[in-house]
UniProtKB/TrEMBL annotation:
Keywords: Membrane, Transmembrane, Transmembrane helix
Subcellular location, record wording: Membrane
GO annotation, biological process: sensory perception of sound
Primary site of residence: membrane
UniProt family annotation: Belongs to the clarin family.
GO cellular component terms given for this protein: membrane
Membrane topology listed for this record: Multi-pass membrane protein
A Pfam family hit: Clarin-2
UniProt protein name: Uncharacterized protein
InterPro entries: Clarin
Length: 86
């Protein structure tokens, strides 16, 4: 009788662990933003640094990495440039 109770408890726990694993797996396939990073260019010459002091969007960007793909938006001083990362 003690063995039957142990089997039931272990089966019950295994079921919930499997359901949790499936939920995490589904979420990983569904999201495209596992990692979000902000890019900032450092080491600019003083002439460029002073000219862009008022415009905080120049020489910056964002990167988004998912499980299978991602995207990056970088601004090199001429506006945002979007590209796809495979």
């Amino acid at each position: 009788m003690r063995t039957d109770l142990t089997k039931r408890v272990l089966t019950f726990c295994t079921f919930f662990i499997c359901c949790g694993a499936l939920a995490l797996l589904s979420a990983s396939f569904a999201t495209q933003r596992w990692i979000v990073a902000k890019a900032v260019k450092v080491g600019l010459p003083p002439s460029i640094s002073n000219a862009t002091a008022g415009d905080s969007t120049k020489f910056r960007g964002e990167l988004h990495f998912g499980l299978f793909e991602g995207s990056k938006t970088l601004n090199h001083g001429f506006g945002d440039r979007k590209s796809h990362i495979w």
